[in-house]
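Each letter names a residue; C-alpha cells follow underneath. Both lines appear below:
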Amino acid sequence: MRYPRLFILLTVLSGASVLPGQSILNPNPSRVLGHPRLELRTGNPNFVEGRELFTPQGVAIDTGASPPILYVADTGNHRIMVWKNAAAFAPGAPADLIIGQKDPYSTLAQGPATTVSTGLNSPTGLAVRNHDLYIVDSGNNRILRFPDPTNQTDILPDLVIGQPNFNSRAANQGGSPTANTLNLASGSNVFRASLAFDASGDLWVADAGNHRVLRYSAADLASGAQNPAANLVIGQVDFETLAPALPVNAEGQRERSRLRHPSGLAFDGGGRLFVSDGLSRALVFAPPFSNGMPARRIMGIYSA
C-alpha cells in the first residue's frame, strides 16, 4: 500500500573514493512530510489526526456525568473516541481522549502479541455503568472495563472478561465454549457484538460466534475478579453446548430457542430483553430468565 507521505533521505558516502553508482543511501528517512512521525502506525492512506471515524459500530453516553460524555467505537481505526461534552462539541472537533491507541495518529490493531496488550482490535459494542466504560474488544475475543476514563491519567483497563488475562486473545480461549469464554472473531471475520445492563446492574453480552447471549452478575463485576463466569445463557441449552448455526431460511427464522450471530441488545422498562440476530429478526425474552429459554415473541418476520 502506498501512503501519501514524502520522505527526505540523506545520502551517506562510504569511503574517500566512491565510483559512480556506488553511493550508499541511508535506508531510514530523516524527515517526513504528511505525517507527524517517522514511524508509521496507521494503515490508512490519509493523514489521521484524532477527529475522523472509520466504520464506527458502537456509541455510548455517560448521562450520569455533567456534562454527559460521548464514547464512539471507531472500529476500523481500532480505538474509542471520547468527547467530554456530548452536547457542545463543534462539528469536526478532535476527540478529547482516545482509548486503545498510543496517540491520535495510530490506527493499527492492538492487543495481545502487539506492543500494547491492553489496546484494541476492532471494538464494537460499548456500555457505561457508574462512569466505567465497558468495551467489546471483538478482534481480541474479550470485554475490557476502563474505570472512569475521563478522570484517569493513565487510561488502562482493570477487568477482562472472556480471557484469563490481558495477554490472551484466542476465541473460546483456544478450546470449546464455557461460562468463561467468548467467540467474537473467527479468522478475519469479526462479529458485531453489543453490551447492555439490566436494571439490577447485570451485564449482558452478545457472544456472536457462539450463537448465544451471556449474563454476568453485578456482584461478580463489582468484585474485580478477572475473567468472571457468566451465570446465564440464552441461545444454547447450557454453557458448554455449541449447536450448529441456524439455517438462513424460514425454518431458522421461526426457531425461538436458538440464535444466529446475535448482535444488538436492549431492555425495555418492563425488563424484557430484545435481541437482534443474523436472521433479520429481533427476539423478545421476558423475565424470569432461565438457561436456554425460548423467546416470547419474534419481530421482523411473518409466521403463520
Q: What stands out?
A: Helices lie at 218-223, 250-254. The longest strand covers residues 123-129. The longest helix spans residues 218-223. The radius of gyration is 23 Å.
